[in-house]
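Section: Multi-chain targets

For targets with more than one molecule, the full set of components is provided together so that the structure can be written out for the assembly as a whole rather than chain by chain. Components appear in the order listed by the source. The example entry contains two components.
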Amino acid sequence: MKQCYLIIDIARCEDCNNCSLACKDEHVGNQWKGYTAAQPLHGHRWINVARHERGQFPIIDVAYRPTPCMQCQDAPCEANSRGAITRRSDGVLLIDPGKARGRRDLVESCPYHAIFWNEESQLPQKCTLCAHLLDNGWAAPRCVQACPTGALQFQRLEPAEMSALASARKLRPLHPELATNPRVFYANLHRFDRCFIAATVAARRNGRDECVAGARVVLLRDGSPCAETTTDPFGDFKFDALEPNTAGYEIHVYSGDQPAVTSPVPQLEKSISLGTLWIAAVETVS
Amino acid sequence: MSMAKIQLATVLATLEKLLRLAAWRYPEFKARLQQKDFSAEIKLRDDSCGRCFQFKQGKVTSKSGVHPADVTMAFQNAEVALRLLKPDRSQLEFLHAAKNFQMEVQGPDELTIWLAETLNMLLTLGSQYGVDAGQGVKRYTTNTNGGPVFVYVKDGKILRITPIEFDAEDAEPWSIRAHGKTFTPPRKTTISSHTLAWKSMVYSPDRLLYPMKRVDFDPNGERNPQNRGISGYERITWEEALDLVAGEIQRVKRDHGPGAIMNGSGSHHTWGALGYWLSARIRFFNTIGSTVIAHNPDSWEGWYWGAAHHWGQSARNGGGETYGTVEDLLKNAEMIVFWSSDPESTSGVYGAHEGTIRRQWLKDLGIPLVHIDPYYNHTAAWLGGKWMAPRPGTDSAMVLAIAHEWITEKLYDEEYVSLRTHGFEKWRDYILGKEDGIAKTPEWQEAETGVPAKDVRALAREWGGKKTYLAAGGINGFGAACRTATGTDWARGMVCLMAMQGLGKPGVNIGCLQQGTPVDTRFYFPGYSEGGFSGDLAGTALAMNLFQKMPQLPTMNTVQQVVPRLKIPEAIVDGECEGYPTDPRTIEGQFFKFRYPSPGHSRVKLYYKYGGSHFGTMTNTNRFVNMYQTDKLECVVNQSIWFEGEAKFADVILPACTNFERWDISEFANCGGYIHHAFTQCNHRVAVMQHKCIEPLGESRSDFQIFLELAKRLGVGANFSEGSTELDWCKRYFEATDLVHQVSWKKFLKKGYFVLPAPSEALRDPVSFRWFAEGRAKDTPELPPLPGDYSGQFRMGLQTQTGKLEFESSSLKRFDPDDPERQPILKYVPAWEGTHARELFAKFPLYLVSPHPRFTFHTQSDGKDSTINDVKDHRVLVDGHYYWVVRINSRDAAERGIAEGSLVKVFNDRGAVICAAQLTERVPPGIVHSYESSAVYDPVGEPGKSPDRGGCINLLTPSRMMIGKSHGMAACSCLVQAEAWQPAMEVAQ
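Its structure, encoded as tokens over all components, is:
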């Protein structure tokens, strides 16, 4: 049977928060019987937009990751719920307000921190994928409808179709090591969980500082080349999607066939902007 | 008896039957008739024909002949009466008859207006509006500052607010083909984040639900002005409130003379062409006569006071036209330079995420991008590209260095410069150092901007070698850089750089896909700044078109006294000030210095403020706080939706409702006037009937109703409303637009929106300035400049004296060629608040930039306990209080012991604001960033003299005019210091 999936492209998210605000609009003050009690006005983030900056001024990037309930196939919350959390045939996990009252432990059971405690109603609560709307003919949950960039996509697919799509689009679940089999997949997750090495290549020519465009730059790991790029018109280059906490990197910037400058790279605890790499002066005839 | 008189007698007799029939058929009309017991005589002036109507306990009876009555409606003759009593009568004929006393109404306003409205109701009874959404839910429509919406309502309560998804009968969108790809926008509207917070704002606990009076304010005794902002409020009835305010209006006029009443609003209001700040409000205050608060062009500043002198465009406050630029950019541009441009944060203005969809196409096309902004803004973060971060207020040094490289490397369009521009040689010589011995090289600018010379050199080469669009501001004519001490210079520089590159040639223009979509610009639907029903021919764009299309009584303010908005505190406290006008008619309109008080006018004694925004949006705003506590203001009235900001400093508070609770009509992102055709920000033109979705909360009332009730007490009710209700005015507005040729009123009212069809490719607008680049007559669809502003043939050339792009400004040469702050050619003048202000910089070593905010529309969506408070990049919850965010470089934070999310006191000699720190690399060391426009003012001690934990960043910004001969704010030139703040310190303060 077709299952409900969310596909979230981090490169398309610009932190407009329309998803989380649409969620509040739908759920604050509205009780959807058979689906969920009302969300409190503040504090809950049923879809939580996380921020992640990489690099150091002036070469940085910033990414945002909308993080809803993962609707896990092997959901720890469901396993711990003693029937208070149930899965629909389309895969949507729902918390039963009747059975879950007082069950604060369910908040702790979610490794993605996607369940929130409603102090007033003494309920654990989370994203329902707007199942009350889907069941009434809506094409997508409110967060997807409100997203201006298509960063959020709602899909109803057979699990095999989803697997094929995930491999075709290089989609990954968040924290696969938790082994919960999420139904939320991410594109460009490297913006959150991988590192970059970046720098600017410059030279002093005719007494003036110049950016060096089009220079060949090679990334070596333990002495062997592992990636190559060229500098852009501002002399900048970036090697991305590197595993964090790896080491042994070195940068070689070429001028012709010979490395004009080499730079060791510290262990990649986080993304690194190496600053400006100066290559030897090249005097040109003006 | 003449035939006409016989007809009239028949019409009047029929009228009684019509009224009775309507009451039998429509319960709302039956209820209406139960409101008043009185008699009304409708007759001819010479008493030769008439009928007297008796309204009693919901019943209508009538008898022929002339009888004494509470209300008399008298017509000059039977022909006039018959013309005006027709159901489809011409409003123009009606107004004409009234103005020429061919029709006179006598009686108390309360009854005459009730009668007129009741007779008008006969025409709209039984109107259906909204669409049944099943399960007892009705789907209405309204429009907001962040896009039009569906509003789902059940049992009189708003259930949800969503974007409008088009149905099968709505028009198809346009497509643009570029580089082998076809780009088509989706068939829906987008909305801003703050629009999604509207439900929480409507039901906010900060809503004002009944009129209030400050407890120690006694209009007949002690007024205790020193306690404004301190003493609390008590509930009063509407009768008491309206009597008090109407009484004070009459008292100050009687005691002090013209000018004693001052009215001002924020820059914005809840959306709607009739209810916006340029319509109902102006109609009322023109009608009673009041001192006007002149708005500085707060989003344009440098463009208006600077750029206009190089390229005209005065009608757009110095910003530029943008027609056809979306298609031109996608097809022809090879690079975009975003300079102080963050459309993803500001939505252009009112543009929701319409431009977002188009900018996403830039990723598909791989067009290289550069972002010049002290803050790595959201557009940069989302789209990527090269980031350069000049110190605030130094941008013009970078401009000069770029021009220097273009000159020395011959990377500019020499033919264009020779044919289409004026005064280049003089500017060139200055740049090369022939005037002052200093060549304005990239190395020279580095000392000012902090941007490496090599980066500027590379930028100049890329830009000079590629067809480049310059995104100057989030829409053309905006940008935080135009609100610095050198804002005029930055904006002038933007025009001068484009003049060197051939503005208007394919792929060479100003824009960032935010404006210039190929929608139908020739379809008339007026925007809000066309004045709605203001009747104001001087202060709005009403005279251009709407005044003819929607005939209405003109209104003229009899008080010729103006206070510049940025100097309201000086006007009140010092009793005098001067300013320069925002007059977009001509380039020279801004030169006419005015003084307050005006000759023979009273100083302001009664301040009637509309909304509460100034603490968060003006500059050095402790001045405004302190102003409220002076006894020079005898009475302060605030008409506001929420209890926030300045509303807490009033003597009398009148609770207004939101636009979800009243009727209005409007178009998506259409302001008109100073952003003519602003709807080209949208992917689809969408006209919206703004349904009254729910009843006003509590005792709140629409602005229209509040003004009408006051007007009735002053005997000018008919002048204010013309006997039309809000819904009547919506219909009159609808009939003024070209919508009448596309859709019936009945259908529009029911469905709530209409999507205007996109024109065929052959009918798309030409690209802006293409005509100019090619030396042809102007062929873009905007009326300005005015005919008299052309030096040559009409429509040939620009508004400047030479008709060309002027590197050396003729208007500045004529006005004041020796003004060191604004010389005829753009020169580098260091900002008066920045590193060159050495003593100040030593004390306050951090630059604070405070652009327009991302998650609140001015102050509209902030505070109010709205859901926006939960947005992490907007406010941060610390110890039960939502603090405004300040962004600080990690290194600066470490030096000061400031941690992520911790509280920080940001301060200078003007004040202190407690914020929550966001540690980031998105600002370089030495610069901090925090948006302006907090709605919340929450001093920890005495108001005006203690740190604010509400987040009014503008407490810190300078009140000095950006240049002396302007009324322009330099809010983004602001030096501060920051230190860790412990809540315990509140006690010490």
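The mean pLDDT of chain B is 97.
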